[in-house]
Amino acid sequence: MSSDRLMRIHSAEFQAMAERVLQVTELTSRLNVLPFDDEAGKEELFEQILGKPLPPRVTIYPPFYTDHGLNLDLDRAERVFINQNCTFLDYAGIRIGERVMIGPKVTFITSGHPVDPEERRLYLTGAPIDVAENVWIGAGATILPGVSIGRDAVIAAGAVVADDVPPASLVTGSKATVRRQW
Predict the structure, then answer these.
(1) With CB atoms counted within 10 Å of each terminal CB, which end of the chain scores lower, N or C?
(2) Secondary structure (3-state) at 164
(3) Residue 112: which of 101, 120, 104 has the closest Cα?
(4) What is the per-residue pLDDT across 60-88, written as a single tens digit (0 to 9) for each?
């Protein structure tokens, strides 16, 4: 995985990313209206979205959303299940380990903006997400930039995960807290 990154919005790198986002949005739009049993159509579109074939023992139920696709690492994803309506904002990289189960409406976000109002429209920030083996992520959970989830962990439905999760642990909750004011 790449390390934390900062990308200027008015740069060639950002322009290339924006063009990829438009291309992938068109591809996922086509994927998400295919008949459920159109395996050949889904296979072809996943290959274009991910830049390589979907591994044979990975199941993804559309609708499926991603902003980049090329940085969703499923190479070691043996026996992985991704349920309907999941979103992978993968520009900074998302790695999914084997035997991971992801419930419906789970969101992975690897990019954001600085908190400072003056910098907010100038830069994107990002950090990769790493999900180890045998993790279960409940419906509607949100995984934020830079998070690593340890082997055998369970993320409860609706949880917002902003910090690393130790192996063999259960995390819950979505309480927002004022951290600072300006």
Answers:
(1) C
(2) coil
(3) 120
(4) 999 999 999 999 999 888 899 999 999 99
The active-site residue out of 113, 114, 122, 140 is 113
pLDDT (tens digit per residue) in 130-175: 999 999 999 999 999 999 999 999 999 999 999 999 999 999 988 6
Q: Which residue has the tokens 């090329």?
A: 70
Is the bond into 63 cis (omega within 30 degrees of 0)? Answer: yes
List the Cα angle 177/180/182 in 5-degree steps: 135
Question: Residue for token digits 């035997």?
Answer: 99
Rounded Cα distance between 79 and 28, Å, is: 23
Give the pTM.
Answer: 0.91
User: Is there a catalytic annotation at residue 68?
Assistant: no
The position carrying tokens 């969703």 is 72
